[in-house]
Amino acid sequence: MTAHVKIPLSDLASLSTYASASTSRLHSLYADIARQKLSNPAAFQSTVSWWRATLQSTLAKGWQPRTTDKLILHADPVVLPEALRYEGVGKPLCLSTVIAELANTKTLIPLNQFLVSRQSIYDPGWLPYRIASFVLGKPLWWALQQMNIVSADDGNETDAERWKYVHGDYVFVDLLEQAASAVITRQRDVGTGLADALYNFESFKDAFAAHALPGVVLSDADVRVLVKFLQRDKHVLVADKDVIKFSTPAVEELSEITTVDCGILELKTAISRLQVQTNSLQQKIDACTRRAMEAVRQKHEMVAKTCLRARKHLSEVLAQRHASLETLQSTLIQVEAAADNIHIMKSYESSTATLRALLAHPSLQRESVDKTLDAIANANADAREIDDAIRVGGDIAASEAGATVDDDEIAAELASLAAEEREKEELERLGRLQAQKDAVERERIDASQTSQQERPMREHIAEAA
């Protein structure tokens, strides 16, 4: 989708950054903020963050003017500010400053530099990192001067003058990382075969361009940037000319593209072309059938015969294409199986070499094993002798201890304990008898008191009678 020169107001208003900003806030966000870097750093960074989110959303939705690119920001001093013009606020006067700051923080990377650099953008030795560490603590614009992004006299420059240094094409790293993550996830679900890991540029684009970012399709330029990023920075594929190979579960480390890879890719491409042809032929056959039936209904016999002849010829060609397709698919399966067998044999060789290396260790030699086992047997025998000696010594000590004990003393102590036990039982019995006597006495006293209380009542009753 190619965006209009000016993004519709309704589209801009639908972005979360605009929806949460008042008109007065938008005025400050659209104003020139170059001098705020030193005078009000907090406000400066807040504005840059707002524009970062806004530009990212604009690109991700495909609203960038005059291009279909979604991962590449085209920083044009006329087109971009005009596209972001907002009714009642005007066009932004701060975009050159924002783009310079985003480039300095590696949120944006110049496209040409991104494509030609051999170093990963995550490498601390990469140019923006080297400059950032070199100018640590110095003003932003001084750092940008070293990168030839701005001129030395930044305090008096206008927005138009600053555009001269930031005008160009930039890769938007946040969107690139999002797209790469989606591609990696989708590739994991494709399959584990060697053919599943191989693509040319067109098949890669067909497989991933519509699934990298939600609701949009990546352009050819986006795809080239994405392939470069996946190869150099993510290390999940290797690309050589028109051949792209992902890493596979069977081969953890990426290897260079081989002639076998090229042959498999040719087979895969031929199968894809034949599948497209067979689908097209089938559609033509169905169309001939429909036209023939319509001609029969309208009594157009010649037209019907012509359609049937065409259908017959198309059916013959379709049968040939199906036969060729079946042959190629069978060949591809056999080639993949052979390639897998090579990996399996390499695994066998590696495991065999590992096992032999372990068995060659001096500790696993026959003489060493026998010697070690004999030493273990001797150690166990010594341990048993020590246990026997300790057990015999214990028995002797116990018998000697028993000989020193006087049986008469033991009997006397036993009699004393028995007497104490009998005395204790007698005291408990006497206590129980005394308790019973006390209970009987309390009952007698209670009965006597009750009788005395009832006597006047009985006398009164007798007199009444």
The gist of it:
The protein has 18 helices and 6 strands.
Average pLDDT number: 84
> How many β-strands, per DSSP?
6
Order of helices and strands: HHHHHEHHEHHHHEHEHHEEHHHH
Give the spatial strand order of the biggest sheet.
1-3-2
Helix and strand composition category = mainly alpha
Strand coverage percent: under 5%
Q: N- to C-terminal separation?
A: 129 Å
Fraction of helical residues? 55-70%
Shape by Cα distribution: extended
Radius of gyration: 48 Å
How many H/I helical runs? 18
Largest β-sheet summary: 3 strands, antiparallel
**Low confidence ranges:** 129-142, 148-154
Question: Would you kindly provide a written description of the structure presented here, covering whatever features stand out?
Answer:
- The protein has 465 residues and is mainly alpha-helical.
- The chain has a domain at 9-169.
- The chain has 18 helices and six strands.
- It has helices spanning 9-14, 16-19, 23-30, 36-39, 41-60, 79-83, 95-104, 111-116, 127-134, 140-146, 159-166, 173-190, 201-208, 220-232, 259-297, 301-359, 366-403, 407-464; strands at residues 72-75, 108-110, 168-172, 198-199, 237-240, 243-246.
- The strands form two sheets. The chain has a three-stranded antiparallel sheet. It has a three-stranded antiparallel sheet with strand order 4-6-5, with helices on both faces.
- A hairpin with a 2-residue loop joins β5 and β6 (243-246).
- The longest helix is centred in the last third of the chain and has 59 residues, at 301-359.
- It is extended and about 140 Å long.
- The chain starts with 8 loop residues before the first helix and ends with a helix.
- Mean pLDDT is 84; it is low at 129-142 and 148-154.
- It comes from Vararia minispora EC-137.
- This is Snf7-domain-containing protein.
